[in-house]
Amino acid sequence: MFLFGCAQAASGQTGGWTDAREFGPFVCRSEFPLAEVQPLLEELGQLQADLVETLRILPAEERVEVYLFRGKATYKQFLAAHFPKVGYRRALYIKDGGPGMVMAYRNPEFGNDLRHECTHALLHAVLPVVPLWLDEGLAKYFEVPRASRAYGHPYLSTLQWTVRLVGLSSVEDLEKKSSVSEMGAPDYRAAWAWVHFLLHGSAEGRAELVRFVADLRSGVSVGDFSSRLRRRIPAVDRYIATHFRTWKPHPDARFGRAGQDSRSSDFLLWQ
After folding, report:
1. CA-CA distances (angstroms) from residue 39 to 114, 150, 163, 174?
2. Closest Cα to residue 102, out of 23, 187, 172?
3. pLDDT tens digits, residue range 31-46?
4. Which of 24, 58, 85, 245 is 20 to 30 A from 39, comparing alpha carbons?
């Protein structure tokens, strides 16, 4: 989840933290020793490289400030002191003029929360604007460990039944959502599903996504992604349904650096 809010209040604050470290584009301050979450920090350090490889974007040049809290109580105190107008969420990405900020507290979903919000931060560090559905879909895709992105996301089994029973929201439907307050759980699942399909189910869709992101970066008039995608793949709704009905790992599946199955071309059923 990302919000644009009054981020400058806490930006640059250095006191009162147990540990601090820089890794990749992140400057991290923590209420607990960062050695306790070293594997997660290493994942975050690799996250930017994965985004660069997947979307063909440039790496972020601006730093992202990360604030980690030992529990919910001190996290809520921090929000109340520095962001009193921001409603409570378990983790936050905030940007307004200064460096982007990510805040999260330790809980059973801590790793997913941190990867999710850091994905938002890295995207907005290099792109002047990101459509909401794509922003959330990419954050959902990258929130799980890289080995789980293609086949292990918790949404996958739900989506396979959703596609069979009721169908999937179209990109056009998702493009109508202009605020996170309009995004319900089915919208997050659908946004993830379209990103998964574009990255793993369609060479044409992946190419259009890369071009779309490049146009966002350059600031040209991009138009709706849905229109661009349907020009490329007119029957895209049928193909995404087939993608999720048939998507399952083979015993010999191997994963590339960004977690993409090396056999993905086998699933380009319309070529």
Report:
1. 13, 20, 35, 34
2. 23
3. 999 999 999 999 999 9
4. 58
